[in-house]
């Protein structure tokens, strides 16, 4: 295949630094959990005031109407650091995407049924955050868009691929992938710790990140976002990091 597989949902790896994830015990998934939980709690008043200012702006734009909860954006996790899986390096950073022809690639290797279903729900032109996962400092680095809707993932039939699935049949494939294209880098790196701080504050005051799947379903590499979640996270690129 022309480039490494992106995801490893079979086994459901969470970020090394992502707190509270209930994951299988491996050498790379257990360190610093307690320390990360402490470090990502928001300073008193900081995140809440940010949410109130954002909410005030949004209400003035929309007449104060609540947005209907639908998933129309996505978050895609990929590993920017080298890691061998069955002898194949599964590293794929946003720079690797930018280096592809037409800055486009297929998003293969998803082997979790819920994540696969999210892939199948993606629509042409929808945007997603590109999220660096399972690395020293996970977080959002850029934006991509869906340029081809779900179709069979060819790696499930390749015995040399780390994501080969002997139980999948070509007449009824189990696994799907989409094509994504680079849109732009975010204006700054938005770290998991910062998003976590807002999530904790929003759980208390009803902000848009209160149910963000990045913290309720950490193990999924394909995650849906509501319009409010996407807009709020995107607004963080305009702020100076705390």
Automatic annotation (TrEMBL):
SUPFAM superfamilies in the cross-refs: PUA domain-like (SSF88697)
Q: Which UniProt keywords apply?
A: Nucleus, Phosphoprotein
Which domain of life does this protein belong to? Eukaryota
Q: Domain EVE, which positions? A: 73-235
Q: Does the keyword Secreted apply?
A: no
InterPro entries documented for this protein: 5hmC_binding, EVE_domain, PUA-like_sf, THYN1-like_EVE
> Could you identify this protein by its name?
Thymocyte nuclear protein 1
User: Where is region (Disordered) located?
Assistant: 1-65
> A GO CC term?
nucleus
Described function: Specifically binds 5-hydroxymethylcytosine (5hmC), suggesting that it acts as a specific reader of 5hmC.
Q: Where in the cell is it found?
A: Nucleus
Sequence ranges of Basic and acidic residues compositional bias: 10-30, 56-65
